[in-house]
Amino acid sequence: MPPRSQDPGRPQLTLRDVAEAARVSEMTVSRVLRNRGDVSQTTRARVLEAARSLGYVPNKIAGALASSRVNLVGVVIPSLSNMVFPQVLAGISDVLDDTPLQPVFGATHYKPEREEEVIYEMLSWRPSGMIVAGIEHSEASVAMLANSGIPVVEIMDADGNPIDAMVGISHRAAGARMAREILARGYRRIGFMGTKMPLDFRASKRLEGFEGVLNEAGVDLVDRMFYSGGSGLGKGREMTQEMLTRHSDLDFLYYSNDMIGAGGLLYCLEKGIRIPQDLGLAGFNAVEILDGLPMRLATMDTRRLEIGRAAAQIIAARVAGENCDQIITMDAGFDPGETMRDPV
Hints:
Elements: H1 15-22, H2 26-33, H3 41-54, E1 72-77, H4 85-96, E2 102-107, H5 112-124, E3 129-133, H6 139-146, E4 152-155, E5 165-169, H7 171-184, E6 190-195, H8 201-216, E7 223-227, H9 233-246, E8 252-255, H10 258-270, E9 280-282, E10 299-301, H11 304-319, E11 327-330, E12 333-335
Parallel strand pairs: 1-2, 1-3, 3-4, 4-5, 5-11, 6-7, 6-8, 8-9
Antiparallel strand pairs: 10-12
C-alpha cells in the first residue's frame, strides 16, 4: 500500500504526470480517459494503470470552472440500509447546514472495488472535501484520496494511520472492554456471532481485542459463527439457535451488532432461557430502535452522531482555512442493559 499523505494540500496530479508515468503524450492520455480516438489496447492499458497507480482522477467540471472546487462534500459509507449510518449522516448534515457546503452520499456495500468507483466518481466533480468510513481501503482508493488536494476525514475507526484526518473509536479497545465486562460478571463459556465479516474490518478488530483479553484470562471462545449477509432479527435468531444447538452449555453470546443480538434475545426468551442468570447477551452500536425489546440488550455506544459532527467540523474548518484537531479518538460507552449479571 502506498504511503498515506499527511499533506492533502499539495498540488494535484495533472495529465502531464500520467503521461510521464505511462510514457505517452498528454493528448493520448486525454483520449484514453475520455474513451475517444484510436488508441491501441496496449497503450490504453498502460495509461489506465498509470492513472490508477498515481491516483489520478479526471476533472468533470468543464470550461472556466475546471480549476475550481464545488461546494460539495463527498461522504462514502458502507451501507444506506444499516441503521448505524443514518445518525452519522445526520451529524454531518447538522454541521454542514450552517455552511455553504452540501454533503453528497455514496454506499460501497462493504466492497473495496465499489468504494474505488464511488471515490473516483465523487472526486471527478472536484468536491471541497471527502468523508470516508473506515481506514482500510484499496491502494487505488488511498492514492486517489491522498492526491486529491482536499481535506479527507476517515471516520468510525481509530485503529490505524489516517490518510489525512480521522475521527472514530478504537474498536480493538471496545472489544477488549466488552471482554473485561463479561469476565467480571463470571461468564466463561462464550460464543461469538458476526455478520459482514471479514469485510467489516471494524467488527474484526473488535473480535481481535475481545479474544486478546479472553486469552490473557485463560479463556477461549467456545464457538464462533460468521455470516456474510446483512444484519437482521431473523438472522440473529437463526444463528443463535444453531450455536446453542451445538453448545447447550454456553453461558454468554457476544454479537457483532445489536440487530442480530436482538434476534438472539427474542429466540432465547421464547425458549424460556433465563436471561441473564443462565445466559448473558451483548451486542454493539446502541441502536435506539431496539429500545422497545422485552429486555434492554447490553451494548456499546459508537458515538455515531458525534463522529459525524466532528468530521464535518474538520472539513468546514479546513475549507475556511482554519486550524483544527486532525485526529479525534472517542470513547465507546458501555451499557450493561438487562442481559448481563452484576459483577461478581
